[in-house]
């Protein structure tokens, strides 16, 4: 079985080595780059399964790199986990808005890091319970990992794809943030409910004209409805 390749982009060698050792012992293949230029060379040579990206780097910052990789079609769907010493809420949201799937605040435990990596990799895997779901003119196909609206393809990230799939499978029902964390993220012991809001916002941006189908129900959560397209 192929080991998942994890690209560690971290300029502090002691931290990178500690992460690499723990990943190696837990069935991953770590690759280390100390800045964005080195990381890009690795990505050009071989796409990793996940990127562990430090916020503070020499040259381009982690935020700039995340935005760059999210715009590149080749790296758009690779999960990005931000490593940051910044614990402030606005900084966390900035990381998610830049395209990160999740973040880990230093110092962190090995168990937390592994749990978050496994959770993000699980989210990347397409849902297989129902291959094709149609709600109005919105179609999600898990076999091809594609979303279309009125026949036109939409670019949807891996976490948003799974979130949309769950909402479409349970259309017209209201789901709390806690329920979505449990059903979509699975291992949400380290993930805050605010993360759900950021991914819903990103999902709406991806849906374009179909964004109104994802409704916010004040004080309750979110619902996907066909009624909003009428």
UniProtKB/TrEMBL annotation:
PROSITE patterns per record: OMPR_PHOB, RESPONSE_REGULATORY
Segments of the chain annotated as binding DNA: 130-226
Record keyword Nucleotide-binding present: no
Keyword Transcription: yes
Domain OmpR/PhoB-type: 130-226
Record's subcellular location: Cytoplasm
SUPFAM superfamilies: C-terminal effector domain of the bipartite response regulators (SSF46894), CheY-like (SSF52172)
4-aspartylphosphate PTM sites in chain numbering: 54
Main location: cytoplasm
Record keywords: Activator, Cytoplasm, DNA-binding, Phosphate transport, Phosphoprotein, Transcription, Transcription regulation, Transport, Two-component regulatory system
InterPro entries reported for this sequence: CheY-like_superfamily, OmpR/PhoB-type_DNA-bd, Sig_transdc_resp-reg_C-effctor, Sig_transdc_resp-reg_PhoB, Sig_transdc_resp-reg_receiver, WalR-like, WH-like_DNA-bd_sf
Response regulatory domain ranges (all copies): 5-121
Function text: This protein is a positive regulator for the phosphate regulon. Transcription of this operon is positively regulated by PhoB and PhoR when phosphate is limited.
Protein known as: Phosphate regulon transcriptional regulatory protein PhoB
Organism: Variovorax ginsengisoli
